[in-house]
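Quiz preparation item.
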């Protein structure tokens, strides 16, 4: 009963605020990428509320109704009116439930000037989305080394790759990526499969010039090592000064962080995944990156930005 009342208040507040899709701050990321940390920084700096993972098949029935895959790919120029209408509704705060609203208190939804839409499953259609929504603030394309993501997902134990083969065949446009699907199905280890899915999901967004021009690309590693400079770069892209509370919040570990290493030793934090894999495992994951012609990351811990 309490949760239903809460959801009703949040829904009513969002309807009264009449948020526009173009006003949303989109944080497009990956599971276990450190995106919760960044969403908390943004929440502390802007009167806002977080729409939490609205493209989650298990918790948002509207996503299942149009048969989105877990990491749905949509070609940049595709015409899919039902998906566009749903995405716009989500960005405007029109699709809310206990799951999508848990990350912010009710008072934040009542006072929110903007919505922060944190989505770990939007990278595959980010190029399509930025062509259809004229965002006032450039969306954030937040990246983390896929080897670190693989290590974290395997450690967490709730990102089972057993269902990956089925999901590779799910959703409209799955046939467009059948070659990469066959390749990922043929990989032997969980870490290779996770890296392969990362590459398949990110490749179009990484290579698309329109996306590059319309988003702010951020990296977990550089945010960890140089947090103040990266937050300043983000707000500069929005032509805004950095709120003091944003700089304070970025020094704190997120609610999803399992230890305090982020605060104690940033260099150790970005290198942590290396202790989880043997040299042979790293070599095999590097081959997956090369198969997709992705050079942004490699055997080193930092992104290749040169």
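Solution:
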């Amino acid at each position: 009963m309490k949760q239903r009342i809460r959801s009703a208040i949040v829904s009513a507040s969002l309807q009264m605020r009449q948020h526009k899709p173009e006003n949303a701050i989109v944080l497009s990321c990956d599971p276990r990428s450190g995106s919760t940390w960044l969403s908390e920084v943004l929440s502390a700096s802007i009167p806002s509320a977080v729409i939490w993972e609205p493209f989650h098949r298990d918790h948002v029935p509207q996503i299942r109704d149009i048969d989105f895959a877990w990491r749905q790919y949509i070609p940049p120029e595709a015409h899919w009116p039902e998906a566009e209408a749903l995405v716009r509704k989500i960005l405007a705060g029109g699709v809310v439930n206990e799951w999508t609203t848990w990350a912010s208190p009710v008072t934040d939804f009542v006072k929110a000037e903007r919505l922060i839409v944190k989505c770990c499953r939007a990278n595959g259609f980010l190029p399509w989305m930025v062509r259809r929504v004229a965002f006032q603030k450039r969306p954030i394309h937040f990246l983390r080394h896929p080897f670190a993501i693989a290590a974290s997902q395997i450690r967490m134990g709730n990102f089972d790759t057993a269902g990956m083969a089925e999901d590779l065949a799910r959703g409209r446009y799955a046939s467009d990526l059948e070659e990469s699907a066959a390749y990922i199905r043929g990989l032997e280890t969980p870490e290779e499969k996770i890296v392969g899915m990362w590459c398949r999901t990110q490749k179009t967004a990484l290579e698309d010039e329109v996306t590059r021009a319309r988003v702010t690309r951020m990296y977990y590693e550089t945010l960890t090592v140089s947090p103040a400079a990266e937050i300043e770069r983000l707000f500069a892209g929005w032509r805004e000064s950095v709120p003091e509370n944003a700089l304070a919040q970025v020094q704190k570990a997120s609610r999803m962080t399992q230890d305090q290493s982020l605060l104690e030793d940033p260099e150790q934090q970005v290198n942590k995944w290396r202790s989880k894999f043997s040299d042979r495992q790293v070599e095999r994951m590097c081959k997956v990156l090369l198969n997709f012609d992705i050079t942004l990351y490699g055997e080193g811990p930092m992104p290749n930005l040169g």
